[in-house]
Structures are given as structure tokens and as C-alpha cells.
Automatic annotation (TrEMBL):
This is Acetylornithine aminotransferase. The keyword Disulfide bond does not apply. The keyword Cell division does not apply. Pfam families: Aminotran_3. InterPro entries: Aminotrans_3 (IPR005814), Aminotrans_3_PPA_site (IPR049704), Class-III_PLP-dep_AT (IPR050103), PyrdxlP-dep_Trfase (IPR015424), PyrdxlP-dep_Trfase_major (IPR015421), PyrdxlP-dep_Trfase_small (IPR015422). Keywords: Aminotransferase, Pyridoxal phosphate, Transferase. GO terms for molecular function: identical protein binding; N2-acetyl-L-ornithine:2-oxoglutarate 5-aminotransferase activity; pyridoxal phosphate binding. Its cofactor is pyridoxal 5'-phosphate. SUPFAM superfamilies: PLP-dependent transferases. Belongs to the class-III pyridoxal-phosphate-dependent aminotransferase family. It comes from Jejuia pallidilutea. Its EC number is 2.6.1.11.
């Protein structure tokens, strides 16, 4: 049976990984500066992660949410401890798209309204409502387009105000650092005014932290760089270091009711074990401090390369913008220099999303290769 051919694939077959490297079937080593879309947060095959998942699968890999699972409570408490999001409630699911689906559903339940405001170049997933609020018509099927969505320019505060005052908007969903769209960010004034307008107009303020969360921005969540308190926070990607897990942090003002949300696999024992291993490693190895130090080091070198026109993003969620499309550059990096990088909707942007424990030597290796590839 053939695979459904929806992915353009590089001719590379990783079969193992260790730390910031992956290895193909021939034993060739690749520097992984993309982490499978920012999923690999603490490095491939981290000993803490391997031990936690192994021990759990040997004990109990899965049971449904019809029974008590103390691991869920431990994970919730650890997220609260490291993030500082006191009093929030946690709903566990399986992916970023599912996290955003549930975030939007909660907003609609809470407000009794159905329209959503989202922003140009935003990406929130590929399922029903999540893809409808994503700014890419090519991936929105007619069944998704039935959702009530208005997409505005980032930083258009007058547009946000005008739409919210119509009274039918249940949620504004924001990436504080856009991922797939190309690492653009709103201003602090914009985000803070949007938050205030949501409060005034009975609208839920959703922080999509699927890619930017878990320390990648230099704070646990990217919204924490601003003076806002989201009603709902969606998380996934780096949360499980490769194990499929997502979640929604829900403000205490939103009351839970039986049957309001549900999932078969979300919050299973293996997912919780993986999630706890990630959090313990971030804490024990002080990885958020490393994010900030390595980000400064990376940006200082990037500023010395004349072909780089703009450096975008924060922390270890970075983009290098050139005055040409980077598709061929990415191929040179992967095939000639064995370095994985990412692309974006902005075809001139090279995305850098390494594990949070990257070291200076890896950044040096990347820039040495980049200079050669740019010749």
C-alpha cells in the first residue's frame, strides 16, 4: 500500500539520535537545528527521557481517562511550578491542533459566541477550527471554511477594536512569535491593548504557545514577555520531546463541566511520564538560562554576516532572513554540510529551532557551514 503523498521529502533517513545530532542508515551524523518542528526540546534520547518512558511502559502504558491517574496531577503541578501560571487548570490532549481546537471550543462555551479573530501569517493547526483560523487558504477545505473567522493584520489594533465591538467574537487567538508564518511578532503595546479589549468585550484571549512554549522564547511562555494574562494557553510540541502530547491551560474563571471536553489518548500514562521528564530536565539543567545565553551568542554572530538582512524571533525560536529564497540554501546545508534547518511561509527565511541544550560549538559549526554555503 502506498503512503498518501502529502509531504515533499528530503532524501535523508534518520535511524537514531543522540543529543543535538541524528544519524542516518549509513551512520552519517547530522546537526539537528530544527528538532522536527521545535518538538525536540531536551535533545534526542536524553537519559532522563529514555529512563522515564522505559520505566512507565514496563509498568502501565495506557488506560483511559475513566480512572484516576496521579501522573496527570504531577504534570499539572510541575507545569504550574515552572511556568508560574498559578491557579490555571490543565486539560491534556495529543497535539497542538487538538489543543487549539479545545481552546476555541472552550472560548465558545464560555462566551456563547462563535466568531474568532486571528492574524495574518498565523498558523494554529490543520484540524477543523484550528485550520480555519490559520492564514493559509491552500490547507482550508470547504468544510473548514464554514467556521466564522476574521483574519486581521498583526498590530492592527483599530481593526481588532472594531471587530470586538460587534459583540459576536468568542476569542482572539495569538502566536506571540509566529512559527510557520515566519517569526514575526506584534508589539508589546498591541498585545496589551488586545488583552484589554478582550476583557472589555467578553472575549477569550488565547495564547497559542504550541511552538513558542516550554522555554523556547527565553521565558517559559512567550506571552510572559508582555503584560497580559491569557484566558487559555495551548501547548504541545516541545512538551513531550517527541512523544505525542498536548494540553490546554485554562484560567480558573472558566468552570469545568462533565463532558465539556474529552479525549481517548490524551494524558495517558506514557505521555505524562514523557512530559514530566522534559520538565525535570528543563529545571535540573537550567535550560531556560541556556536558551538566553545561546540566543545572545547566536545573534551576535549572525549580525556579522552581511548576507543576513534581518534576524527574527527570540530565544531559540529564530529566523534568518535573506534577500533570496532559501530552498536551495537549505538543501546545501543538509546535503553538503549535514545540518537540518527549517523553512517558513516567508520563502526568504531560514528557521532555527534547536534543542534547548544546544552549545556554542554547535552554533559555531552552523555558521561556518552557512558561510561556505553562501559563497
Amino acid at each position: 500500500m502506498p503512503l498518501f503523498n502529502v509531504y515533499p521529502l528530503y532524501d535523508v533517513t534518520p535511524v537514531s539520535g543522540k543529543g543535538i545530532h541524528v544519524y542516518d542508515e549509513k551512520g552519517a551524523e547530522y546537526l539537528d537545528l530544527y528538532g522536527g518542528h521545535a518538538v525536540i526540546s531536551i535533545g534526542h534520547a536524553h537519559p532522563n527521557y529514555v529512563k522515564a518512558v522505559t520505566n512507565q511502559v514496563e509498568t502501565l502504558g495506557f488506560y483511559s481517562n475513566a480512572i484516576q491517574n496521579p501522573l496527570q496531577e504531577q504534570l499539572a503541578d510541575k507545569i504550574e511550578d515552572l511556568s508560574g501560571c498559578r491557579g490555571y487548570q490543565l486539560f491534556l490532549c495529543n497535539s497542538g491542533a487538538e489543543a487549539n481546537e479545545n481552546a476555541l471550543k472552550l472560548a465558545s462555551f464560555k462566551t456563547g459566541k462563535s466568531r474568532v479573530l486571528a492574524f495574518k501569517n498565523g498558523f494554529h493547526g490543520r484540524t477543523s477550527a484550528a485550520v480555519a483560523v490559520t492564514d493559509n487558504k491552500n490547507i482550508i477545505a470547504p468544510i473548514n471554511a464554514q467556521q466564522k473567522v476574521t483574519i486581521l493584520e498583526l498590530n492592527d489594533i483599530l481593526g481588532v477594536k472594531a471587530e470586538l465591538e460587534k459583540g459576536d467574537v468568542c476569542a482572539v487567538i495569538v502566536e506571540f512569535i509566529q512559527g510557520v508564518g515566519g517569526l514575526d511578532q506584534g508589539t508589546a503595546d498591541f498585545f496589551e491593548q488586545v488583552f484589554a479589549l478582550c476583557k472589555t468585550n467578553n472575549t477569550m484571549f488565547i495564547a497559542d504557545e504550541v511552538q513558542s512554549g516550554y522555554g523556547r522564547s527565553g521565558k517559559f511562555f512567550a506571552f510572559q514577555h508582555y503584560n497580559v494574562t491569557p484566558d487559555i494557553i495551548s501547548i504541545a510540541k516541545g512538551m513531550g520531546n517527541g512523544f505525542p502530547v498536548g494540553g490546554v491551560l485554562i484560567h480558573p474563571d472558566i468552570e469545568a463541566k462533565y463532558g465539556m471536553l474529552g479525549t481517548t489518548f490524551g494524558g495517558n500514562h506514557l505521555a505524562c511520564a514523557a512530559g514530566l521528564a522534559v520538565l525535570h530536565t528543563i529545571e535540573e539543567e537550567q535550560l531556560m538560562d541556556n536558551v538566553n545565553a545561546m540566543s545572545d551568542y547566536f545573534m551576535a554572530i549572525a549580525k556579522t554576516i552581511p548576507q543576513i538582512k534581518t534576524i527574527k524571533g527570540r530565544g531559540l525560536m529564530l529566523g534568518l532572513e535573506f534577500d533570496f529564497e532559501v530552498g536551495e540554501l537549505r538543501k546545501k546545508l543538509i546535503y553538503n554540510h549535514h545540518i537540518f534547518t527549517g523553512g517558513a511561509a516567508n520563502k526568504n527565511l531560514l528557521r532555527i529551532l534547536p534543542p534547548l541544550n544546544i552549545e556554542k560549538q554547535h552554533i559555531d559549526q552552523f555558521f561556518e557551514a552557512l558561510k561556505k554555503a553562501l559563497v
